[in-house]
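[job 0417] fold request received: Flagellar M-ring protein
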Amino acid sequence: MLENAKTGWDKLDINQKMIILMTIILFVVALGSLFYWVSRPSYSVLFSNLSSEDAGAIVAKLQEKKVPYRLNGSSIIEVPSNQVHEARIQLAGEGLPEGGTVGFEIFDQTNFGLSEFAQKLNYRRALEGELGRTISQINEIEGARVHIVLPEPSLYKDKENPATASVVIKPRAGARLADSKVQGIVNLVSKSIEGLKTENITVVDTTGNILNEATGDSSFASGGNYTKTQLGAKEAYEGTLEKSIESMLGTVLGSESNAVVRVSADLDFTQKSTASKIVKQEEEPVVISEEVDKEKYEGQGASPGGIPGVTSQVPSSATSEQQASATYPSGSQSDGDSTYSRQKKTTNYGFTEISEQEVKPPGELKKLSVAVVVNNDGSKPIRDETIEELVSAACGIDKGRGDVLTVSSVPFDTEWMKKEEKAIADAQQREMYAEYGKYALVAILVMVGLFALLKVISSVRPARQPELLAPRSVAAAGVASLDLGDINISKITPEKKREMQIEQRKSQLTKEEIQNLAKERPGDVAQLLRIWLNT
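[job 0417] inference complete; emitting structure tokens
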């Protein structure tokens, strides 16, 4: 095969060789360009919003690791999509990006000339930088900065100002930071700084919204307007109820899109505590304790009596009127003997006593309003009464509490939905066609290149075949081969020798072509020999 190709190439003139070479070069260039366009990597963002220092350090590391990259502006670095995660892990292991802040590495280099004030300032900067880096590791946060105020210590505790801190957070695109994570950030900062209380920490986002306002359980105890936590609990309750009703109606109506539910709940977040004590009287009380006190006196003479006090105790010099006013009851007396007795009995009864303490948790439902709109497109009969009964039972409507439930069935306008679905389907179809088009273009270019190459080769072959089939050419080849044997080679000049070598080469090529032709087309060669013999 290679010998045949070489023989055919030698038979071509300079123009034919140039055409074939140019065709091959153009085909290779086009095919290589197409493969580069199809297989070129898609780039994704590695880091964005970088400071100049971080961007320079990251680019240097990427060049060192021979990772391809490209800059989109001065603060965005992109790398191939299949290397994003690996590059981030490698750079994070080397402490990049630093976020434009310094941490405790500021103390790696000792400077003995720093004043005490400069050392305190560097410590605060390092503490702020380390906290900012730690907070930035949270998934929903793209970046964070911490500002700390550490007051000077005072000799008097009551005159010492408290430490304060503020945290500025930049959430990632489309991410929402949960209240629990905000509270976690507050606790993290509080436990990292000595003497810093959680109530002296403020967390805000880049739009200026305070994120840690009224966090914790104490926020439920306030009344009046809803706090952020209370509003979140209210929205969560309403959303759960809406999804539950829509899911139920979707089963009845065939699809959740055939019903729209809106719930408004009035919740009481006031926390109350009530204590009560109930005494239950029994028919036969139970005696708990009984005390008996007895006193008895026996002796001669009158028993003691009279009115106690000053009047009864006056001396003999008192007036007769005063003495006459004093009377003395006499006790029992017999032959000058007297007897005195007294008995006192105290009985304590027990009763059943019930003590109750009721703590009313915040979030009690005061009133519930539910509105339901059902798609009545006429495909199936819908009874509003049935829907109302189902919804009322599902969400616990209480008319006595003042709850309101409204159900309406109207035809929905679904044209916009159809347009959206069609737009999405068209976009997916275009994306699929573009993907298929890449491979189709590769196949077309390959076929065109092969066709052009075969066309050039086929245009050359017919010019050679007549020479192979011509009788004179064969005879000339034989004569040329015979003449070479009669020549005295020692008398041949160099120019003549070169001419003879060329003629011999042509004769050899002609023989080889005839042999190849006889192998490939034996029938045609036999027919040609018959014609020559007959002539």
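[job 0417] notes: The longest strand covers residues 286-300. The CA atoms of residues 416 and 422 lie 10 Å apart.
[job 0417] exit 0
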